[in-house]
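Standup notes, structure subgroup. Blocker cleared on the 6-O-phosphono-beta-D-fructofuranose input:
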Amino acid sequence: RPRIGILTAGGDCPGLNAVIRGVVKSAYRMGFETLGFEGGFEGLVAPVRCRQLTPQNTSGILTLGGTILGSTNRGRFGVTVGIDQKLSLPQPLIDAVRQTFQEMGMQGLICVGGDGSLSIALELHRAGLPVVGVPKTIDNDLSCTAFTFGFDSAVNCATDALDRLHTTASSHDRVMVLEVMGRHAGWIALHAGIAGGADVILIPEIPWTYEGIIAKIEDRRRMGKNFTLVVVAEGAALPEGVTVAQETIQTDRQTLLGGIGAEIAERLLPQIDQEIRCVVLGHLQRGGGPTNFDRVLATQLGAHAVRLIIQRRFGEMVCYQPPQIDSVTIAEAVGELRRVPPDSSTVAAARAMGISFGDSLE
Ligand code: F6P
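Run returned:
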């Protein structure tokens, strides 16, 4: 049987195993054997770490969180790409990958990753290697695809947290601040905020102020609602004149420690006559199994990636452009992150529900 390879790179997310299974099953039916490389791109170079994946040994992984192949967003391929950084792989590393392709007799490699990992896939493609991409991230911030798998699962987790915070907040007449992930984008906060009935949503794309939050809390109290749910995206910039570069540093720090939620809680406390608590949801959003939506999306993307390899459409990335599963060039997809348009219909719907974005618009 001819061979294709697959690897999962960058931060994990629910649905990776569904893609792996989708690839292995459809490749098998098309007469291909699949090799799974372990630990992201690291598995491609000495000491090469890979194993044969079969419909039998990938059976039952559809619903499993994480990735059976392992992943890394560190290491020799330096997948820690900030939005301002440019990648350039050292030639010896590219040569080592080429050697692995030859030794393993691989017809193509499917790289499942986010913006940083797909940039690496693009470099390998430009060096003449036959790769195709599959987009993944809980942040939903990749261009050219309406949704990435992992996002729906993360939103589900954040929504569940808001549902739980709702009951305790209302019992104690408290303000609850929930900090969610999303890196430089506010998609998780926006969608979970709407789904979980938050009162205030703070995202990096819409400048907000403490006065804006306080106005909403007071407004609610005047209406007899003595509790308020605030959901804040980890990348939500500090309100006063923060530059994109500072925001990048702040977001990386956030990844380690959390922080914007606690900072908001601390700053609000002396200004409101109410108790306040903060919860950082963190990696709970990335753990656990995928939702039904993510299972279906991931399966479709995996099957389509195999089709791209068979059609020798290298350098392309599968994508979801409802109602179609389609493909674009990886070059089109990486580089520019997709952020929440402040004038989007989703933001407008939230505002129509009376949700405040901490700005002066209601
Ligand atoms: O990109 C996914 C994401 O979970 C972001 O939301 C978050 O900022 C970051 O990865 C956390 O990364 P790490 O795996 O380094 O903790």
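Discussed briefly. Confidence is low (pLDDT under 50) at residues 79-84, 239-245.
Next: hand off to the docking folks.
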